[in-house]
Amino acid sequence: MNEQPLVLGIESSCDETGVAVVRGHDLLSNVVSSSLDEHVRYGGVVPEVASRAHLEAMVPAVDRAVREAGVALRDLDAIAVTAGPGLASALMVGVGAAKALAVTLGTPLYGVNHLDAHIAVDVLEHGPLPEPTIALLVSGGHTSLALVRDITSDVSLLGETLDDAAGEAFDKIARLLGLPYPGGPMIDRAAADGDPTSLTWPRGLAHARGGHRPYDFSFSGLKSAVARWVRERRDAGLDVPVADVAASVQEAIADVLTSRAVQACRDLGVAHLQVGGGVAANSRVRALAEQRCATAGIELRVPRRGLCTDNGAMVAALGSELVRKGRPASDLWLGTDPSRPIGEVHVVPAPRETVDA
């Protein structure tokens, strides 16, 4: 077992081209090239624009990551790359680049799960992940609760959003309020001047019903309630108090996320909660998670904000854990899976039939 593997990580699942180098649990470099400004005018990420930006940014990002880490490509013990979930055309750019490097260098290749990588990145901040840990993953495309017994091989889904992800709800509500994309940071900023108790919004799925798991999430009702309220105000010729709406919406989302995560810890007897994904950068989510975990006697782990959003460090971190645990590398048949579920941590080579000549 290599306890300090040198791993290059490549992330291209959405609009960030991320390349990073880690040695064991030490982050040596973390380069992120974002095409966000190109998507703002569309109010969301355009896959074709994102993949073109990845093509332009990939080689410079790899060069810079290796240079800042003070290593050479030939020194690498492994290359890790996001193989899903994500935008198909964007994922293909990263996987193609990783394959090219792996072939050229003769280096093992690991195709990893984007969601599990959001959990693994915490080892770069706080050291080895306690086993077991409950992980709350919150982003623009995903909202999930998982039980992590081993980040490299045993991650079980406890619940997920049945409709909009939390970050998606932030984006859509921000648009209703006339705030620019991306909506999450804009809602967080506007909420600082608002009263979170001024308006009350639905929480959704407070109890399991109709086959739903007790840890599932739903944010479509919240989004619809806000849209209806804003429309009625405007139809009546009244101003919309943007700061108060932002603060109360943020409170509703943070309340649901943190209460369900802490409840899962209590129900399963798990003393550690890790929060990851882009929405983990939200100030109210972080503060309420700290407050509730302290009250419940749960140890909370949240990476610094720069490691919550998509980046190559999280991919390299998971790759490093896979190497350390001696997990099998992927092969050059590695493909992409835009809907790869959490828990399918990395792509293991499938047995292939041989054809006699």
TrEMBL record:
<feature type="binding site">
    <location>
        <begin position="137"/>
        <end position="141"/>
    </location>
    <ligand>
        <name>substrate</name>
    </ligand>
</feature>
<dbReference type="InterPro" id="IPR017861">
    <property type="entry name" value="KAE1/TsaD"/>
</dbReference>
<keyword id="KW-0963">Cytoplasm</keyword>
<feature type="binding site">
    <location>
        <position position="114"/>
    </location>
    <ligand>
        <name>Fe cation</name>
    </ligand>
</feature>
<keyword id="KW-0808">Transferase</keyword>
<dbReference type="InterPro" id="IPR043129">
    <property type="entry name" value="ATPase_NBD"/>
</dbReference>
<comment type="similarity">
    <text>Belongs to the KAE1 / TsaD family.</text>
</comment>
<dbReference type="GO" id="GO:0005506">
    <property type="term" value="F:iron ion binding"/>
</dbReference>
<feature type="domain" description="Gcp-like">
    <location>
        <begin position="27"/>
        <end position="316"/>
    </location>
</feature>
<dbReference type="GO" id="GO:0002949">
    <property type="term" value="P:tRNA threonylcarbamoyladenosine modification"/>
</dbReference>
<dbReference type="GO" id="GO:0061711">
    <property type="term" value="F:tRNA N(6)-L-threonylcarbamoyladenine synthase activity"/>
</dbReference>
<protein>
    <recommendedName>
        <fullName>tRNA N6-adenosine threonylcarbamoyltransferase</fullName>
        <ecNumber>2.3.1.234</ecNumber>
    </recommendedName>
</protein>
<feature type="binding site">
    <location>
        <position position="310"/>
    </location>
    <ligand>
        <name>Fe cation</name>
    </ligand>
</feature>
<dbReference type="InterPro" id="IPR017860">
    <property type="entry name" value="Peptidase_M22_CS"/>
</dbReference>
<dbReference type="InterPro" id="IPR000905">
    <property type="entry name" value="Gcp-like_dom"/>
</dbReference>
<feature type="binding site">
    <location>
        <position position="282"/>
    </location>
    <ligand>
        <name>substrate</name>
    </ligand>
</feature>
<keyword id="KW-0408">Iron</keyword>
<feature type="binding site">
    <location>
        <position position="184"/>
    </location>
    <ligand>
        <name>substrate</name>
    </ligand>
</feature>
<dbReference type="GO" id="GO:0005737">
    <property type="term" value="C:cytoplasm"/>
</dbReference>
<comment type="function">
    <text>Required for the formation of a threonylcarbamoyl group on adenosine at position 37 (t(6)A37) in tRNAs that read codons beginning with adenine. Is involved in the transfer of the threonylcarbamoyl moiety of threonylcarbamoyl-AMP (TC-AMP) to the N6 group of A37, together with TsaE and TsaB. TsaD likely plays a direct catalytic role in this reaction.</text>
</comment>
<feature type="binding site">
    <location>
        <position position="118"/>
    </location>
    <ligand>
        <name>Fe cation</name>
    </ligand>
</feature>
<dbReference type="InterPro" id="IPR022450">
    <property type="entry name" value="TsaD"/>
</dbReference>
<feature type="binding site">
    <location>
        <position position="188"/>
    </location>
    <ligand>
        <name>substrate</name>
    </ligand>
</feature>
<keyword id="KW-0479">Metal-binding</keyword>
<dbReference type="Pfam" id="PF00814">
    <property type="entry name" value="TsaD"/>
</dbReference>
<keyword id="KW-0012">Acyltransferase</keyword>
<feature type="binding site">
    <location>
        <position position="171"/>
    </location>
    <ligand>
        <name>substrate</name>
    </ligand>
</feature>
<keyword id="KW-0819">tRNA processing</keyword>
